[in-house]
TrEMBL record:
Sites of 4-aspartylphosphate modification: 56
Phylogenetic lineage: Bacteria, Bacillati, Actinomycetota, Actinomycetes, Kitasatosporales
Biological process according to GO: phosphorelay signal transduction system; regulation of DNA-templated transcription
Keywords: DNA-binding, Phosphoprotein, Transcription, Transcription regulation
Native source species: Streptomyces venezuelae
Alphabetical list of Pfam families matching this protein: GerE, Response_reg
Signal peptide coordinates: none
InterPro entries for the chain: CheY-like_superfamily (IPR011006), NreC/VraR/RcsB-like_REC (IPR058245), Sig_transdc_resp-reg_C-effctor (IPR016032), Sig_transdc_resp-reg_receiver (IPR001789), Tscrpt_reg_LuxR_C (IPR000792), WalR-like (IPR039420)
Protein name (Swiss-Prot/TrEMBL): DNA-binding response regulator
Length: 235
């Protein structure tokens, strides 16, 4: 079985070394490169054929947000997932990184076992966690929302009422099993709905669905209302 190839991007050599020791000692993981700048991270993502990039936000020359954006926009790197590192989970730059294409975020002082689990989750193509903390962060940042993304309105017009309900539940942190229970569906049907929504909205993973849901008004930051549901809720 092929292991998960991980690229570490952080401007602090000690942080990279500590993460590298942890990952190289974990079954099924291999550190294939270390970058001290965002530009190095983009170049190494291409040359080292990494599966997951563990990306710090604050780096010289090119920050982690721009590096994430370039990796996500590169068709040759379509299978590469980015896991963003942040000092605090209230860092508003995390939202920018998620918009740029990151699959989730991790606080730097996380437990080692949680870091390994997060890398495996992202490598499997899922958003980090499910994605409750991500949703809470976005809700805080968007309490004073700006205009939605230009393509948000037309794209959402292609969703059915059921798909809008599913999207709202994804944004509120529910996994496929929980969505199935909430809407009286089978887990497979819930998974199919999520996959179709991702295809219609042209997003990489569930983290991107959370962004779209909040920016489009499908869910309202700090409130209980969810658009597209007759009772106004997302229980």
């Amino acid at each position: 079985m092929t292991g998960i190839r991980v690229l570490l991007a952080d401007d602090q050599a000690l942080v990279r070394a500590a993460f590298a020791m942890l990952l190289d000692s974990a079954p099924g993981m291999e550190v294939v490169g270390q970058a001290g700048t965002g530009a190095e991270a983009v170049a190494l993502a291409r040359s080292a054929r990494a599966d997951v990039v563990v990306m710090d936000i604050r780096m010289p020359e090119m920050d982690g947000i721009e590096a994430t954006r370039r990796i996500a926009a590169d068709e040759d790197l379509a299978g590469v997932r980015v896991l963003v590192l942040t000092t605090y989970d209230t860092d508003e730059h995390v939202l920018e990184a998620l918009r740029a294409g990151a699959s989730g975020f991790l606080v730097k002082d996380t437990e080692p076992a949680d870091l390994l689990a997060a890398i495996r989750t992202v490598a499997a193509g899922d958003a980090l966690l499910s994605p409750g903390p991500t949703a809470r962060l976005i809700a805080r940042v968007l309490r004073t929302p700006g205009p939605p993304e230009p393509a948000a309105g037309p794209a959402l017009g292609g969703l059915s009422d059921r798909e809008r309900q599913v999207l709202a539940l994804v944004a509120r942190g529910q996994n496929n099993t929980e969505i199935a229970e909430t809407l009286g569906l089978s887990p497979l049907t819930a998974k199919t709905h999520v996959s179709r929504i991702m295809g219609k909205l042209d997003v990489r993973d569930r983290a991107q669905l959370v962004i779209v849901a909040y920016e489009s008004g499908i869910v309202v930051p700090g409130g209980d209302r969810a658009a597209g549901r007759p009772d106004g809720g997302a229980r």
